[in-house]
Amino acid sequence: MTESKSMGLWSATSIGVGAMVGAGIFSIFGTATQISGNAVYISFIIAGAIALLSTYSYAKLGVRYPSAGGPVEFLIHGFGDRILTGALNLLLWTGYIFALALYAKGFALYALTLVPVASTSLWTNVFATLIIVIFTAINFIGAKAVGKSELFIVSIKVGILLLFAVSGLFFIDSSNLSVTEFPSTSNILFGAGIVFLAYQGFGLITNAAEDMIDPQKTLPRALYLSVIIVICIYVLVSITVIGNLSISTISTAKDYALAAAAQPFLGNSGFTIMAIAALFSTSSAINASLYGGANISYLIAKEGELPAFFERKVWNRSTEGLFITSGLVILCINLLNLEGISMIASASLLVIYVAVNASHLRLVNETGAKHYIIWSSLISSIVFFGILVYYEILNSITTLVVFAFILALCFIVEWAYRNYSSRILKTRTNGGNKL
Fold it and tell me: Per the database entry, which stretches of residues form a coiled coil (predicted)?
């Protein structure tokens, strides 16, 4: 590569923190609390531990195969040019689509608290659709990558959440956190399956490996640091919300629980500040997911490889991909409920983690990684996926059927497109564009 590398540790870390913090916790906190009760912070710790284990494979593989392709690059190296690899890339793209739908609905639910409109499903879908249309239009016109300003944006977002969490600790009602009120262990695990989506995003750091200063050191540190920072933020925020609101109150205000939790100690202005922070966070996540991850997955699905120079936030090679992605997101917004969206997105992400770890086992001699850590990550991801499936068997067979249909469709589409176009999958570091 001849392009200059200018991304340092904190800029790289901000990509992961920015992708994880905010949108996930704003969108699904209320739903998770309905399942995990006042032990929701334990659910965040468990989900964070699973994510932290997976960072090991992402770190080792990212150093060995630095590419904007991220996890797809790892899968191609591990499994080769197969239908399995292409289908998993399509599943990753699908995961971004569901995450975008979730973030858009989160945006809409908080927006409805600031405007004099009845909080109905109709208006939720209207606002969610509108925010996707706006970002699609901006990107189509030709939005430029933000660059170093991402660190500044993330600092503001994290700062607001930390101010809320730390301030609220002084006003908590300790009885709300009583261990005697904890739900069953299964509910805590089920809740962890739902909040796992809140850690979606750390893998985007590997997509920036080509731009990092000394990626051998910067990439692993940025991955571990981002996940640890996010675990701490989520736990603090969870304790503050639970400590300031009863479970019944959170259930009533589940769609805007964080804003409601700020009201007791910050007043109406606190509610407004947190609602605005939610709008900012969900918008930022929509931007990152639409212009970054979904763009990459679509281009690989279509062309089999990324161009030598990839501008992550502009769909300048395949504008039809922008409209296809946005159209599918809008369909999800209008056809699925919030919990169904979060389950499918979390399940898709877990399948990718399982695949990346399995791929890593085939490449362990090249990465020099420790087998037992990879196996720990692989097994924990499989178990966690099983827990999520079991929860849906008990609560929503329809959601599980939809996910199974999507998984099968990814394989069918990959097989059909591969035969139609004769497209093959290439890596950036072997058989594709050289670094």
Answer: none
